[in-house]
Amino acid sequence: MELSDRKRQILKVVVEAYVRTAEPVGSKAIAAEMGGSVSSATIRNELSDLTEMGYLEQPHTSAGRMPSPKGYRLYVNELMEAQRLSLAETEKINQSLQLKMEELDRLLAQAGRAVSALVRYPAYVSASRKTELTVRRFELLAVDERNCILVMMTSDSKVKSQLLRMQLKVDPTDLPAAANLLNSHFTNTDPGGMSQHLMNVADQVSPQLFLLLSQAVSFAADVLEEAGQREIVTAGASRLLKLPEFRDADKAHELMSFLADSKEDLPQPMHRPMEILIGPENVKEALKDTSVVVASYDIGDDMRGLIGVVGPTRMDYAAVAARLSGFAEGLTRLFGKQEELPPKEERK
Amino acid sequence: MELSDRKRQILKVVVEAYVRTAEPVGSKAIAAEMGGSVSSATIRNELSDLTEMGYLEQPHTSAGRMPSPKGYRLYVNELMEAQRLSLAETEKINQSLQLKMEELDRLLAQAGRAVSALVRYPAYVSASRKTELTVRRFELLAVDERNCILVMMTSDSKVKSQLLRMQLKVDPTDLPAAANLLNSHFTNTDPGGMSQHLMNVADQVSPQLFLLLSQAVSFAADVLEEAGQREIVTAGASRLLKLPEFRDADKAHELMSFLADSKEDLPQPMHRPMEILIGPENVKEALKDTSVVVASYDIGDDMRGLIGVVGPTRMDYAAVAARLSGFAEGLTRLFGKQEELPPKEERK
DNA sequence: TTTAGCACTCCTTTTCCCGGAGTGCTAAAG
DNA sequence: CTTTAGCACTCCGGGAAAAGGAGTGCTAAA
Which of A305, A323, A297 is nearest to A88 (CA)? Predict the structure, then answer.
């Protein structure tokens, strides 16, 4: 059976009322909501159809109807009106985007808190690299005969450095040569390639130098690996406790510890700039009873971030989606500005 | 009235039973626990005394007794037997101390998770610096005429670096002079002193150089300030939900959001290596109904860390205290090892 | 000082009952 | 064929009452 316009409208009303009240909604209330143009009996007939078609559910006979995941899906795909944010709201988003630029992971934490506060649900934020990171340049600075400083510039123009402590004394005048070696053989390659080369030069250099090189390479590998990891940060998990569906401590606990622990398992890959996953559409068991709205943003050219919101299936999808995409756009813009300066050559 | 030995023993039994069951404990149960040497009626008389003296409380007449904060305090101070950890337990602690040494804040996060898992309560970890941090040495490396790398070694032998982008072109051969300037005037001083000096040299150097210097100083100030901040990280907050006293979602929510937000307000300063704060002894309103066990550990010579556990007043103080101090000692040892190498001059 | 006995208190759980909201069906009306 | 009114029926939720039980406090005797 095709969905008549009236059925669609009824479904819409049901979803929106249920989202608001968290109570099953009855035929009378729907009739009222629709302006009294039809009677509750008519609505009842339609409801019965919609239930049969799987868009609505009843907790028990003689209770009102609530949307099934399928119903939410239809609502999100076709019925939901994209919500325009008020000026005040946009302003609020921009304000929460006044993030202090520090280390990436702190920034993520700030962003997570901001989003969570904005939508009043728990949120998570992550960033991951699109392309492989490599070292572009090495430098070695002498401190004394047992210590020197390793400075590396990575392919994304970030600089990292570390104090190297040497087991064997090294003549400070040897350092430039060592740096040259590093620059000629260990740049623009992944950690695997580095240790490869390290083996190759093992018997061509003095033992002191070799120790130094291997320390340098191991630090470089650490840096590259760590930067390559996807960093996930969650915020606002305790907001769950405010929701009637998580009044049950066990349920709340399950989801909250999932959020706290799962660094990898949160909904991640996605094709469109924003995706909505409703209840059982989630792969992870712990999220089967919840919905997730997740959007992506760009960090410069070479990293991508995810920003997601977790809530009950009864979620105000329109509101969350609007705010989330606003925030994601803001983040992209923010990082765009930051990144504009660095690796490019000229600017007028 | 003085506390007879028997009263003390009864108090001990009450505390321990209540900790175990979270239910008010009655005279009969106590009599049984004490081996049946006295009857429940006798116990009742004693209980009545203890209640009058403020060591015990009754939720209502005709309910069993539970310890008051005063009762817990006496228990902790005098009755509690320091718990010896089993070998297996010690092993477990050492195992969770296999923390991967990364950035300090990640290490804290790891430690927090480990402690929380160990004691099964939420935990928090922090680190703060005892002495003022300064820059010991600056270096500047040329990248191209508009970019150079600033490398700083701080007074705790950590190395930090940053890419500086210059508005005005600077001749790379000027950099050593600039570095000299930095080293002679901006080392071993706090951020305040730095900007002071910056003003002084303003009209003695070229504008290009001045811009460069001010960028360097501002980065240095950032680094020093950030490193000086006390970093707090919480873990395992969701464990609260498992406890009967936080079955009530509102109560749980209050405490959990407090834990999530309060970076500064968690019990901190302390005189002894370990402190136990019971219920109302906590200053913060949100902690009035909870107890906190907090221990300190050393990070090298110049930083100190705090590690705390938050739980209901009905907490197994002996167990938590034993594990926590074990963990704190382990951390001190861990950092001791790490720090042994660096700033010292010679080693045999 | 300890103990047994007993009445009494107060919480908790269970049961029962009732009201209300909502459905589904039928039959009549448009 | 669709819409509507009417009505019996279902089921939940809340409240009152009842039953049960754990524990106390007191008294009187050992």
Answer: A323
Which residues, 6+ apart, have CB-to-CB distance to B224 below 8 Å? B133, B134, B135, B154, B190, B191
Separation of alpha carbons A321 and A326, rounded Å: 8
CB contact at 8 A, A140 and A150: yes
B71, burial (CB in 10 Å: exposed 0-12, middle 13-18, buried 19+): buried
CA of B50 to C1' of D29 (A): 26
Which chain A residue lies closest to B138 (C-alpha atoms)?
A141
Number of Cβ within 10 Å of residue B183's Cβ equals 14
**Residues with Cβ within 8 Å of residue B181, at least 6 apart in sequence:** B201, B205, B209, B213
Give yes or no for a contact between B289 and B247, defined as CB atoms under 8 angstroms apart.
no
Give the Cα separation of A196 and A144 in Å (integer): 29
- Residue B20, burial from CB neighbour count under 10 angstroms (0-12, 13-18, 19+): exposed
Closest-CA distance, B298 to chain A, in angstroms, reads 22
Residue by residue, pLDDT tens for chain B (348 residues) are 679 999 999 999 999 999 999 999 999 999 999 988 899 999 999 999 999 999 999 999 999 999 999 999 999 999 999 999 999 999 999 999 988 767 788 889 999 999 999 999 999 999 888 888 899 999 999 888 888 999 999 988 889 999 998 888 888 888 898 999 999 989 999 888 888 888 888 888 888 888 889 999 999 998 888 887 778 899 999 999 999 999 888 899 999 999 998 888 898 767 888 999 999 999 999 999 999 999 999 988 888 899 999 999 999 999 999 999 999 999 999 888 765 544 434 333
Query: pTM score, two decimals?
Result: 0.87
Q: Nearest-CA neighbor of A292 among A126, A125, A123, A128?
A: A123
Q: Would the Cβ of B251 be found within 7 angstroms of any atom in strand D? A: no
Chain B interface, Cβ < 8 Å to A? 102-103, 105, 137, 139, 141, 143, 149, 151, 153, 157-163, 165, 226, 235-239, 241-242, 246-247, 249-250, 252-253, 256-257, 260, 341-342
In angstroms, the CA B129 to CA B136 distance is 17
Closest CA to A4 of A40, A33, A42: A42
Q: Protein B245 CA to nucleic acid C20 C1', in Å?
A: 35
CA distance B262 to B259: 6
